[in-house]
Amino acid sequence: MTVHPITVWGEPVLHRRAAEVTEFDDALRTLIEDMHETNDAAHGVGLAAPQIGVGLRIFVYKFVNDDGVPPRGVVVNPRLTLGKISGAAPDPEDDEEGCLSFPGEGYPLQRAEWAKVKGFDGDGRPVEFVATGWFARVMQHEYDHLDGKLYVDRLIERYAKKARRAARKHGWGVPGLTWMPGVDPDPFGHDDHDHAHEQDHEHEHSHEGPAEGGHTHV
Fold first, then answer.
1. Is this model's pTM higher than 0.85 or not?
2. Which of 27, 38, 51, 137 has the smallest number of CB atoms closer than 10 Å to its CB?
3. Residue positions annotated with a catalytic role
4. Dihedral through CA 100, CA 136, CA 119, CA 206, nearest 10?
């Protein structure tokens, strides 16, 4: 298994629709294992293939949930059916997300409270479940990556402005930028001790998911 560099906002693969997987073979299963390994090293609760530079419709997740779904898994060629999204302003604490590809930043975003997920595992077997709460948020966050969207693309204007300022400050928005989990400093401040408690995270501060206190990095 191999840990891969994580692409940063501005890398073209993050901003275009990923392609359907057509071959369920050893190469795909190796990719999935590498994605799990990279997600673990990055202290994420989810990781989509475009985040390691691969334009395929795959995401992995690592999230203890209340929906009877295994806490670690993969969905290939996913389809999502969403519940209603509230029209209320997002809560700055309860609705904050983060993203491994917009590292170190977090902004509030409203999401649907549930999502029905359909797709396949790495062997081509059907997968179907309903995710609720923060687990549903993780599913939505990862699925967006497969359509070329980051959560910052969905922010209301007051937070979108902050995200644009942060991108300019960091020099993002150009191709070729990555960071390496386990080598570069963790952008969300995790250390090995924190990682032991990661199942509480979903900090999309979602590095792709929620983190402690309702946040997650995806």
1. yes
2. 27
3. 142
4. 0
